[in-house]
Design brief:
Chains A, B: It is an enzyme of class 2 (transferase). Chains A, B: Belongs to the N(4)/N(6)-methyltransferase family. Chains A, B: It catalyses: a 2'-deoxyadenosine in DNA + S-adenosyl-L-methionine = an N(6)-methyl-2'-deoxyadenosine in DNA + S-adenosyl-L-homocysteine + H(+). The structure is a homodimer of 365-residue chains. Chain A contains eleven helices and 14 strands. In chain A, α2 packs across α3, α5 packs across α6 and α6 packs parallel to α7. Chain A is an alpha/beta fold. Chain A folds into two domains: 255 residues, Vaccinia Virus protein VP39 (Rossmann fold, 3-Layer(aba) Sandwich); 81 residues. In chain A, the strands form two sheets. Chain A has an eight-stranded mixed β-sheet with strand order 1-8-7-2-3-5-4-6, with helices on both faces. A six-stranded antiparallel β-sheet of chain A has the order 12-11-10-9-13-14. In chain A, β11 and β12 form a beta hairpin. Chain A is elongated, with a radius of gyration of 25 Å. At the A-B interface, α3, β4, β5 and α8 of A face α2, α3, β4, β5 and α4 of B. Chain A binds a DNA duplex (19 and 19 nucleotides) through loops.
Chain lengths: 365, 365
DNA sequence: AGGACCGTTGAATCGTACG
DNA sequence: ACGTACGATTCAACGGTCC
């Protein structure tokens, strides 16, 4: 175990250690790991239960490890584990933490207060998030990762070319579109229940680990859970150290990791990038002023007209709805493609079909 | 100026006030604005002299300020203006703040510490971000907004239906794809130089203001800059209060706001959700003969049927009660929306859902 | 075989008006 | 203030079944 950096302490490489991550990190030599990925408890503070419109119950996070007395207790915990993480991190290593609005501001503040140097915040845009069932907020469709160097002067690693190649030869942006961990990838027990409430998708860890480490380097995960970080690290030819308090999670992680076949180095560079589909809501044209609120729309024969409202709905007499709904309504047709039906009168009397305004936005990501 | 809430202080509506936003907010009556949008400056120089966001030099010129002091000064400033903002915000009002990874964690932590209740963090995904020229990080392609209520118990406003309409009848997510402010929208001086370094796009403010206010309500921007918030508020038929310390920015903002034409009432009128519509008791439909007593109701699958009584209750076997109670009972569900559950058989065998009968009374006073 | 259809599910801080 | 009853509210992916 070569990486002991002259401390006399050996690194427990490619192992899952069961116990409290703070105590376990204290036993690791300083400046010994190249990268850290940490998915700490989010402190969600859920109250009652939540039902879908069909009355089925949402299986939320209700584990003891996610409960803290208050924000101060959460902050104290955060400072403590981040302090050990910083000690264990090599001088030029980097750390990733992930969270939601419940905890990410506490994490970011703690990182900065401890001297870490934020390099990016990265948005995991979920392809298939849970909707907001009550219609009281925006769909919570992302989580935030913070990527930080040990300090402002760190000469950290960033595999720029690998990230660019992952992204069809344009620079990798700070917003990543990746599906949830579902289907066959999701670990389940015999009854079909999920083994861990918050298992992260391997695609996310693939990108994280590939971005900031080289093969053979050491990735530490202080909150290993069911082992996504370690499994991906192993597949990508990295070494790992996984810390996990719950023996059941740790056991599941070990079994999972054992089943992983390390990739050859060339194969490690390939990723199954899910391409994002393009759909442009009419409302976006309104916001952007391309078809401003107040615009009068007419059909090709100028038989009907409608006024565009600020929310992208249109109104024709008492009827209000989407361009498609109102188009169908006035024609008494079962359906209507509003993009082709409605036109904007141009100076000079020419009509321009809505679809032409949409193509102006087609090029955008 | 009606909204003074009995304080004797008047609200300076539709004005740009020049001065320090903290001092100016102290002169506003408490609980007086419906929404706040804040784009606080992040001018702290991390190398060399330490300056406050208002450009004043922090005392102790000869002192070696380290990173901690930088952050502490920023935190103190943040707490101070957010404290005043919270005082000025109505009980059920909401606040938006925007920032990047340099300051958003400080903002979020301060919001939580002051008792604000985070509703969403929202990602502004930039369509055309500046590339990372050095190739040392991910392209910083987004900024983060935090949307928060004044407190955990606030009954805040969220125009769910309008947001859904803006997004082609799919729930609005927490990641928004909007271009930078460029082209004709970008304010420039005679030489073509940008008037303000971080002018926000109007499309962003359009969505923000539309999501959480009604026409006629008051939007406060403590860091108005060149007036995007006020201009969009005016266009959407909202009132505004803009605070700006730089007289040049304030002057540019005023000129810009003056040139804005408010939308017509019909264009500003946004899709109303069912929650906004008047509540109509089922009994009224019975009284009015729209669904006469004796009518047989069935569910969509014709599994259950019930008979309408003269008092608007319905009976299904031995069960009698409201359309909701009986619907829940027969399904053995915890609750039921009777308007959507029960149907009336039409001549020809078609089923018509109760909700459709309600529409006839919707327009009446 | 393959397309249509249906059931399940995911880190969730998910009411409000009226008496 | 507090209790009660009304009644509003979901998207995409995946896997299994049926025809």
């Amino acid at each position: 175990m070569g990486d002991g950096v002259g401390t006399g302490l050996d690194l427990p490489l490619d192992k899952v250690l069961v116990g409290d991550c703070i105590a376990l990190m204290r036993q690791l030599p300083p400046a010994s790991v190249h990268a850290i990925f940490a998915d700490p408890p989010y402190n969600l503070q859920l109250k009652g239960d939540l039902r879908r419109p069909d009355d089925s119950l949402v299986d939320g996070v209700d584990e003891a490890w996610d409960r803290f007395d208050d924000l101060a207790a959460y902050d104290a915990f955060t400072h403590e584990w981040l302090t050990e993480a910083r000690r264990v991190l090599r001088k030029d290593g980097t750390i990733w933490v992930i969270g939601s609005y419940h905890n990410i501001f506490r994490l970011g503040t703690a990182l900065q207060d401890l001297g870490f140097w934020v390099l990016n915040d990265v948005i995991w845009r979920k392809a298939n998030p849970m909707p907001n069932f009550r219609g009281r907020r925006f769909t919570n469709a992302h989580e935030t990762l913070i990527w930080a160097a040990r300090g402002a002067e760190s000469r950290y690693r960033f595999n720029y070319a690998a990230m660019k190649s992952l992204n069809e030869e344009v620079q990798m942006r700070s917003d990543w579109f990746i599906p949830l961990c579902t289907g066959a990838e999701r670990l389940r027990d015999e009854t079909g229940a999920k083994l861990h409430p918050t298992q992260k998708p391997e695609a996310l860890l693939h990108r994280v680990i590939l971005s900031c480490t080289q093969p053979g380097e050491v990735v530490l995960d202080p909150f290993l859970g069911t082992g996504t970080t370690a499994a991906v690290a192993r597949r990508l030819g990295r070494r790992y150290i996984g810390l996990e308090r719950d023996p059941a999670y740790a056991a599941a992680a070990e079994a999972r990791i054992d089943s992983v076949e390390p990739l050859s180095e060339s194969a490690a560079l390939v990723t199954a990038g899910k391409r994002e589909q393009k759909r442009i809501p009419f409302g976006h044209l309104v916001e952007r002023g391309l078809v401003p609120a107040g615009t009068v729309l007419v059909d090709r024969g100028r038989r009907w007209q409608a006024v565009v409202a600020a929310d992208g709905s249109i109104r024709c007499g008492r009827a209000q709805g989407s361009i498609h709904q109102v188009g169908a309504l006035v024609q008494e047709a079962p359906s209507c493609n509003g993009w082709a039906f409605w036109h904007v009168e141009q100076p000079g009397g020419r009509l321009r079909v809505l679809d032409e305004f949409r193509v102006a936005l087609q090029g955008e990501g």
